[in-house]
Amino acid sequence: MEDVIIIGAGAVGAFIARSLSVYELKVLVLDKENDVGDVTSMANSAIAHSGYDPEPGTKKAIFNVAGNKMMPTVCRELDVPYGKIGTMTIALEDSQLKTLEDLKLRAEKNGVEARLMSHDEVIKAEPNINPEVKGALLCPTGGIVNPFLLVARAFENAMDNGVKLALNEEVTGIESKKDGFVVKTKDNEYEAKVVINAAGLHSDDVAKMIEPISWSINPRKGEYYVLDHYAPGLVNHVLFPLPSSKGKGVLVTTTTSGDYLVGPSSEFVPSKDDVSTDVMTLEDVKAQAKSLVPNIPFNQQIRVYAGLRATPSTHDFIIEPAKSNSKFINVAGIESPGLVSSPAIGEYVADKLVGAVLPLKKKAHYETKVRPYVKPLTMPLEERNALIKEHPDYGMMVCQCEKVSLGEIKDVMSRSLPVYSVKALKKRTRAGFGKCQGGFCQPSIVRLLAEYYHTTPDKVNYDKLNSPLVVEEVKKEGK
Fold it and tell me: Considering only CA atoms, which of 468, 461, 470 is closest in space to residue 421?
């Protein structure tokens, strides 16, 4: 029997697992996908929100601000790219300046550093901004983070400390018993003393397996453009319009890899699996973004994508035990600002909620850091040449667009967190994220994964199970 089972391997599940991994507990994470962080945590704005926007006193506000303060240390320990570049919320009309003042007061109530900027100050800080700008609210503690690596390396750290992970295990039922729970999946049954429901978009479905609930999760779709890292300086901060009832609006931002993100839209959809994009919505995103930055070079677009947010009917994070059983803990409705809130949520759930029902004793030895990653592109030329001389794989480029070497790919595949698909390796290394979107490097990636797992290329999945890129061999040996 496990001490704790966590259902869901997104950002929230990752940081709950990481926080629990320092204790003498047997922890298992279940997820229905073929990789960690493969749904909402993968398709978002990659923002470490400062915390100026949530309603004061809400769980969103509390965990957002706490998570933002933790983010520099967390990213340093997990070797995750992070940039505290600040956020600017833009007023394009005189009538909006009062709203900026109201947001500044809200920021102060939440304990977030913020200051108002004049037209001239905004133009100086952001030369490409709409020249009609009237002012802005600057929150210097806001920033950007790599969401793929944040989730993956939190799991890597947790697994280095003994946490187990079972992918492709969709939970189909949960049975309460005297000393805990039986968690049933399509293929297996697992027992645990405590169950944590961090199932994202499906957290209401999982919660109903235990008891009737008064809340629901409504999927809200956001569509984005990704622009190539053609040149620095299009924007220097994360730029937001004034927030509305639909959310923080269409933003324009750089990313930790130097790409630019433009989006998202914000529309409720009936399906929890609908990540399609459509021309009309994307055109609307484009128009809204151009009202902030008129000269966005959309000819540098390399892809579009959509993500789904788990919007709760309560309009706030749901972080509490089930009414009928304190050993079943719901961590649901973690929409924006969920990514930056995750480290703080993880600590709270582990220490306060699990700690209330299980004895917690810290391990004598545990790691808070992952084994450092070798990054040839950030090294001085002399140091890089010495590395390649000693380890030639770091001089062999597999992905030319993103300059990802064979040595980096082999390093990722050798870690405790498994890499079961082309997309998983893409998220860990950026191989395939560039202008050609994998057109040149995917055959090499498929071959490398096949060799590592001692299988054939037609058994290598792009993403989910049964999603091969190679259908069959057309040239047999000797023919």
Answer: 461
- Is 470 within the bounds of a domain? no
Print the domain residue range for 301: 83-144+218-312
For strand 135-139 and strand 115-118, is the pairing parallel, antiparallel, or unpaired?
A: antiparallel
Closest C-alpha among 104, 282, 274 to residue 201: 274
Judged by DSSP in three states, 157 sits in helix
Phi, psi of 19 (to 5 degrees): -65, -35
Q: Do 114 and 227 belong together in one domain?
A: yes
**Containing H/E element for 134?**
none
Sequence-ordered list of residues with C-beta below 8 angstroms from that of 139, at least 6 positions apart, any chain: 50, 52, 86, 87, 88, 89, 107, 112, 113, 114
CA distances from 357 to 17, 24, 458 (A): 16, 14, 47
Q: What is the pTM of this model?
A: 0.96
Left if phi > 0, otherwise alpha if psi is -120 to 50, otherwise beta: which for 91?
beta
Confidence of residue 472 (pLDDT cuts 50, 70, 90): confident
pLDDT for 473 equals 76
pLDDT tens for 63-95 read 999 999 999 999 999 999 999 999 999 999 999
Query: What are the tokens at 131?
Result: 């020249």
Distances (CA, A) of 150 to 15, 75, 81, 254: 9, 7, 8, 17
- What is the helix, strand, coil percentage profile of the chain, to 5? 35, 25, 45
Tokens 């927030």 found at? 243
Listed residue (53, 52, 138, 74) closest to 345, CA to CA:
74
Domain count, the chain: 3
Per-residue pLDDT tens over the stretch 180-203: 999 999 999 999 999 999 999 999
Catalytic position from the list 49, 202, 229, 237: 49
Helix (H, G, I), strand (E, B) or coil at 90: strand
Note the pLDDT of residue 466. Answer: 95
Report yes or no on 472 lying in a domain: no
Q: Could you report the per-residue pLDDT of 1-14, keeping only the tens digit for each?
A: 999 999 999 999 99
Dihedral (CA of 141, 146, 148, 153) sign: negative
User: Does one domain contain both 207 and 229?
Assistant: no
Q: Give how far the C-alpha of residue 139 lies from the chain's centroid of Cα atoms, to the nearest Å.
A: 21
Residue 89, CA distances (Å) to 50, 56, 445 in order:
12, 18, 41
Q: Is residue 475 part of a domain?
A: no
In a domain, 109, yes or no: yes
b/e per residue 400-434 (b: at least 16 CB within 10 A): ebbebbbbbbebbbebbbbbbbbbbbbbbbbbbbb
What is the CATH number for 449?
Answer: 1.10.10
Contact call for residues 68 and 49 (beta carbons, < 8 A): yes
- The verdict on whether 49 is a catalytic residue reads yes
Residues 440 and 446 sit within 8 Å (Cβ to Cβ): no
